[in-house]
Amino acid sequence: MTGRISGRIVIDFDGDEGRAYAHSLGIRPHVRTGGGYHWHLRAPEWRVGNLVGKSTHGAPDCVDVRGDGGNAILPPTVTRKGPYVYLRDPADLDTLDDLPLTLREALRLVPPLPAPPPMTGPLPRGDDRYPSSRILDWALQKVQDGTLGGRNDTGYHLAWALYNNGYSHAEVLQVGQTYVSHVGHQHPNGRGAPYTLDEYRASMRTAYTAPRGEPWGYSSTDARSTPQTATQALEDVYAQLPPEDQARAAHLVAREWAATGRPLEDTIRYLRLIGHTAAPKAARTAYQDHERGEAMPGSLDGFLRARRVRYGRGS
């Protein structure tokens, strides 16, 4: 039995292709199987799923993972493909750190993201009102794409939309506090003074006296839409990532945008808006790596899916 119950997981390198791949990684397998190698690793504290490379996007076809609830054949078993033979002491377990990071991500061998910390209080809502959390999400997206102007203009539209949907002064202010906490220090071009709660309050006063618009539609199944793109998903989880993963995610975004010809300024702006503190340096480094023709160090899709972040219509 593999997984936490036995303290070990097994990486199965299958067939001649798997053996060649294991050699390319420079690893020392524990078992020669009838058709490949088994490499025994110390099980991590978090649950490891069983994975078949051929049916997992981004994973090598010749590599499978036996994790919690799985099993692996041990020597001296003989199958129709041949005998299983120990190549080293099975008690001498290697660790996940012995795998390249890109392969760990492809095989879903990184810890899942922790649950987000609870808010000090839930955002206001009501069964007959469009959820304020979704109106806030809409405003944050508008800040990113700039279609409503800057943070101040978008703050006005946020307050106006909340009033249109029946929220009180206190509730509009509560949502505004969250809005300011997200965008207050994220100036799109890195210059200018922070956006403050006093500025949002001024927008509230203007929005309250403006002609009312129609309330937004509401569906009971529409409480929180699933992100449709990798960058939208990253916006949702960025604050939960440890610093080293924040840096890696920022680098992957910048490398992918460099490859598609996105302007460097767009990339810096996006990284600032998600809260990356070293946005200019991270973006420029990634663009320089692209210009030098360096190999991609993974993908944002693989990074997110390895951490069980769901997005897209198939989620």
From TrEMBL:
Residues 2-97 form the DNA primase/polymerase bifunctional N-terminal domain. Pfam families: Prim-Pol. InterPro entries: DNA_primase/pol_bifunc_N (IPR015330). This is DNA primase/polymerase bifunctional N-terminal domain-containing protein. The lineage of its organism: Bacteria, Thermotogati, Deinococcota, Deinococci, Deinococcales.
